[in-house]
Amino acid sequence: MALDDYVWAAGIATDLVNTAPEVWHGEDKLPDLASLAAFADLHSLPVRARPGDPRAVHRLRATVRDLIDHPEQARLIAGASALTSPTGGITLDTSSDRRRWTVSLRPGATVTDTLSLICGIGILGVVQTLGAERFRACGAPTCRGAFIDTTRPGRRRYCMPGLCGNRVNVANHRARQAAAHE
Ligand SMILES: [Zn+2]
């Protein structure tokens, strides 16, 4: 995994925290091995999910959410550094035109280790490049999601833009219609 690919990594961290039951009115979107395997496939993670992983991933998800919810720089750096413990080693990838720092997983790494390393690198990369103010709660009043904003202008407002942004637009539209009929 490329150390400078924080946009990809932070996107996975955001997707992971937004599978939590608190974001879906109690329904966990990663309840079991099958859903975790599908999540790993969707993000092309190189390891298979094993029976102990769902619970371990739930703990990791809570840790990452806690970091996003308390975005002080020193706390983010300390917390994200701890998430990088499954690192196997650092090397240079020369397979594309451009040489990149890459980090590998230690041998025998699990899906939880993989997600932990990705979240750690994503958070550290965003703090380094964009700053601690990029860790935010969803702006939709009814949503309890959170996200890491890796957009260039830094004005992202919703955890799931297609979903939460649309909900807010629909609510605003209804409010305008209601006002027009008064
Ligand atoms: Zn949201």
UniProtKB/TrEMBL annotation:
InterPro entries in the record: ABATE (IPR010852), ABATE_dom_sf (IPR023286), Znf_CGNR (IPR021005)
Zinc finger CGNR domain boundaries: 134-177
Taxonomic superkingdom: Bacteria
Gene3D superfamilies with a match to the protein in the record: Jann2411-like domain (1.10.3300.10)
Transmembrane segments: none
Protein name as it appears in the record: Zinc finger CGNR domain-containing protein
Organism: Amycolatopsis decaplanina DSM 44594
